[in-house]
Amino acid sequence: MKSIFFNGKFYVERGHFEEAVLIEDGLFKVVGKTEEILAMADADTEKIDCNGKTVIPGLNDSHQHLLLYAMNKNEVYTEDVTSVEHLVEVCKKFMEENPEKVVNGMHSIGWNQDTFTGEKRFPTKEDLDQISTEIPIVLERICGHIASTNSKAIEVLGVTTETRVAGGEIRLGEDGQPNGIFTENALIFANKAVPSGSKEFKQKLLKEAMEYAVSVGLTTVQSNDSGSYWCKDEDKFSVFEDFYKEGKGLLRYHSQVCFDSPEDFEKCLTEGEYARYRKEGGYGKDSWLTLGPLKLFKDGSLGARTAITDSYVGQPDNHGVEAISIEEADRYCEIAKKYGVQVVTHCIGDIASDEIIGSYEKAFIDGENKLRHSLVHCQLTTEKLLDRIVEEDILVQAQPVFLGFDMSILEDTCGKEMAETSYNFGTLLKRGAHLSYGTDCPVEDCNPFPNIYMAVTRKNMEGKPEDGFYPKECVDVETAIDAYTVESAYCEFKEDVKGRIKPGFYADMVVIDKDIFTCDPLEIKDIRPEMTVVGGKIVYKK
């Protein structure tokens, strides 16, 4: 089946636009002028008029958590709470109105103490006990690196003053007892108190999340779900494989996978899912589901003050939380090298990134980063670290949209000197580093256009500051789109077949309602797709 999309402004590459494309077998076959492309049609060719609209390559979110987003949408919404008291009130109301959703416990991600109008503190078990003492409650901060629980959750988990979790902290109150606050790996442990739901339940929510994702222009997500606490059971791979085999997938899904230990990782490579995937050559011909890199966590988050850095203002003894030791990271990377697997690591603090690059370097092939190991987030950086990233060809999977909030706390949290060299995504791109864009959804909404807006303007959603936050880091629209398309494809080793509207590339593209190349940059955040196409198939139409 052939199809022609014509009468559009198709972005091919910087300075190059065309009018029409011929698609066949899921690939762009010809890209050119409307007249010449229409002349290639036969009786069975479908013709779609783009009505003069701008068309860009399909947007590829290089790091998010789509299943977690799907599950979170079914939970109590806590992103707008303005105080601990408000949080309690919102959760109590949700329990009353949705008793069937909290039978086995309550979980959510969203509160942010930095946005509280009153006391800016982390909620404790005493606060959450006001919601309920009958069911376990785990409420994560928006970053997903610190959580508050109630007494029932502590009881279900069997936590005592002696309980320890490597790479995490179970905090104690003034009475010497667990106060309900868990960080990093201890947070993962805390989430065991609330069941994540059946495979069928997860697939139902996954379908809903994909419908939203394609409606905002995503055609690929590189998603870290399998092996994470919300997808850790025996179905952690089949929940996606069966979903795609049944033809329910609406976009391309590239899996970033977590493991509990280096030993579990190697076992999966020799006799588990990775071994089967490689032996069978993937999940089938033309499958939109692919099995990708190992995902590690080195530190926490800026907002939780658990990122690994020496720069916390007024907290000289706080250096963050080490979720994985250098020795364990070295072991993971050694195994990855042995079996030829890419490694992507959550690093927000400058020290965290520096240490992980050290682990990567030990596992380089012929002294080069041939497996394309990557830093996910890479927010706090020094000039020396920026140099090292470029020199060692380390990939960065960045989230410019984080600046929407972080610009309001960065200097107060880490100081002006650190702020000047942090979130330097523009500098890295200008110096030739491989840097892609993502949203870390559900930390941020997966809508890519606010992300592009933030990269281009360095302004928050209200258009402030007027000149942009450290405006030297602004990039132009072409650079931002390339970071969201061909650079994201580079993370998957697919830059030769994905991320461009060119012959031989996957026919993934988005028809948008405004010309992103000529509109006022302040309007970029409001752009919406009129049509999203994956493999030549229209998966969303306004």
Give an overview of the whole structure.
The structure is a single chain. By secondary structure, the chain is α/β, with parallel strands linked by helices. The chain has 3 domains: 2-57 and 507-515 and 523-541, Urease, subunit C, domain 1, CATH 2.30.40; 83-193, Diaminopimelate Epimerase, Chain A, domain 1 (Roll); 199-506 and 516-522, Alpha-Beta Barrel (TIM Barrel). It contains 20 helices and 23 strands. The strands form 4 sheets. The protein has an 8-stranded parallel beta sheet with strand order 8-14-15-16-17-18-19-20. A 6-stranded mixed beta sheet has the order 3-2-7-21-22-23. Strand 16, helix 11 and strand 17 form a beta-alpha-beta unit. The protein is globular and about 80 Å long. The model has no long low-confidence stretch (mean pLDDT 96).
List strands and helices in order, with pairings:
Layout: E1 2-6, E2 9-13, E3 16-18, E4 20-24, E5 27-32, H1 34-38, E6 46-49, E7 54-57, E8 59-64, H2 66-72, H3 84-97, E9 106-111, H4 125-128, E10 137-141, E11 146-149, H5 151-157, E12 168-172, E13 178-184, H6 185-190, H7 199-215, E14 218-224, H8 238-245, E15 252-257, H9 262-271, H10 273-279, E16 289-297, H11 326-339, E17 343-347, H12 350-362, E18 374-377, H13 383-391, E19 395-398, H14 403-406, H15 410-414, H16 416-421, H17 425-430, E20 435-437, H18 448-457, H19 477-484, H20 486-491, E21 509-512, E22 529-534, E23 537-541
Parallel strand pairs: 1-6, 2-7, 8-14, 9-10, 14-15, 15-16, 16-17, 17-18, 18-19, 19-20
Antiparallel strand pairs: 1-4, 2-3, 4-5, 7-21, 10-11, 11-13, 12-13, 21-22, 22-23
